[in-house]
Amino acid sequence: MNIKFRLTLLNFLEFAVWGAYLTSMGTYLAGAGHGHHIGWFYSVQGIVSIFMPALMGILADRWMEGQRVLSLCHVLAGSFMIAASAYGYQAGPVPDFATLFTLYTLSVAFFMPTIALSYSVAYSALEKAGYDTVKAFPPIRVWGTVGFIVTMWVVDLCGLQSTPGQWMVSGCLSLVMAAYSLTMPRMRINKDEGQQKTIVEALGLNAFRLFLKPRLAVFLVFAMLLGFCLQISNGYANPFITSFGSIAEYQSTFGVQHANILISLSQVSETLCILLIPFFLSKFGIKKVVLIALMGWVLRFAFFGLGNPGSGVWLFLLSMVVYGVAFDFFNISGSLFINQETDESIRSSAQGLFMMMTNGLGAFVGTLIAQAVINNYVFVPQNAGATGGEVIAGWQTCWYIFAAYALIVAVLFAILFRYKHEKK
Predict the structure, then answer these.
(1) pLDDT (tens digit per residue) in 242-277
(2) Could you say which architecture CATH assigns to the domain 3-186+201-416?
(3) Where are the alpha helices (DSSP H) in 92-231?
(4) Within 182-308, where are the H helices?
């Protein structure tokens, strides 16, 4: 079977697992009495991404074939996610936070490394087949976003947005992905037999030496700062849009009734923007591409603050359109940039390090800060008696704060990241 098709299916399943719950989990938690804890469920993805992708990348580089590590992680992630779903149903309308959070955390601890691992498996297979990864990978990665969209729609249309059933869908798909991962081409293990190695080399921690290269060090720091933005709209866009249901004129709008489908337009935009990456990278280089991504985040948040599901729904639609640029032009381009700038022997570890900085430190700190901001304006007890209009005004203030942050990061990146692009 054609390797591109096989990798296409791999990416489809990888992101279908995530799409089942990532954008709708906040609505379930808010309905289960844990609205003020939403940030913790998203920030824990950042906590585990600080060390788990790097550790699994080291395992894949040094001791165990990458496709087998990918499979093992999905077995564990899927099992714990199914357990979280089963507990959510068994516990009823107000599940215990500690139990639910523990099972969910164990699941994402093993899921988050699979994103970087799936990239490494794909890059390795494409390079073995003689393909240019910059040109060949983005059209394959598009189907990961398609998988994400498909499970978003399935969860929405099956009425699972406000139930733990979304986790059951994710867990079952994770087990399917575990089995399929074992069919991928075998990856090289860099044991360096016969050579004397330092402890750092033996543990595969060479990737951290990327911080000794000034340009890569600056890039990774900004990867962390941009990572602040990654989970904010995933965690809060759905609760924000559905909160308009407290205002009579918006109760019957499509956005309030089907927030997940509306939000899925963000992923539709992703599929188109991924295909633009090879052109933009070769034409403009990584610095301008990342700046475009940062401005995309500014507009993403600003349009949320300005729009509504009624007469202002077009602003929501624009927010969904620019999300593709905001997300892909950094995440995918950044991954390709790191792949090109590192030696083959540490590429899995380097991808894990990049994931740690973005979805780890960045997402962890950013989501907790976002939770504090949103709790202050929306979810705190003193706002319990607020009218629908007052709640929406609080949400709008939050989106404007996030937009201002992204703009500041964009300006600093333009000044501090030194990169001269040479057109190929």
Answers:
(1) 888 888 888 888 888 888 888 888 888 877 887 788
(2) Up-down Bundle (1.20)
(3) 97-128, 133-157, 165-181, 199-202, 214-227
(4) 199-202, 214-227, 232-242, 254-257, 259-306
Report angle CA 343, 345, 350 to the nearest 5 degrees: 70
What's the CA angle centered on 15, arms 366 and 145, to 5 degrees? 90
Q: Which two tokens stand for residue 278?
A: 């090879």
Cβ neighbour number for residue 384 with a 10 Å cutoff: 7
**Alpha helices (H) in 182-213, listed in sequence order:** 199-202
| Contact yes or no for 382/371 (Cβ under 8 A) | no
Rounded Cα distance between 305 and 285, Å, is: 31
The domain segmentation of the chain, as residue ranges, is 3-186+201-416
pLDDT, residue 390, reads: 77
Give Cβ neighbours of residue 161 (< 8 Å, ≥ 6 apart): 24, 27, 28, 155, 238, 259, 260
This prediction's pTM: 0.74
User: What 8-state DSSP symbol labels residue 202?
Assistant: H
The conformation of residue 231, written as its DSSP 8-state character, comes to T
- CB atoms under 10 Å from CB of 179, counted, come to 12
Residue count of the chain, please give it.
Answer: 424
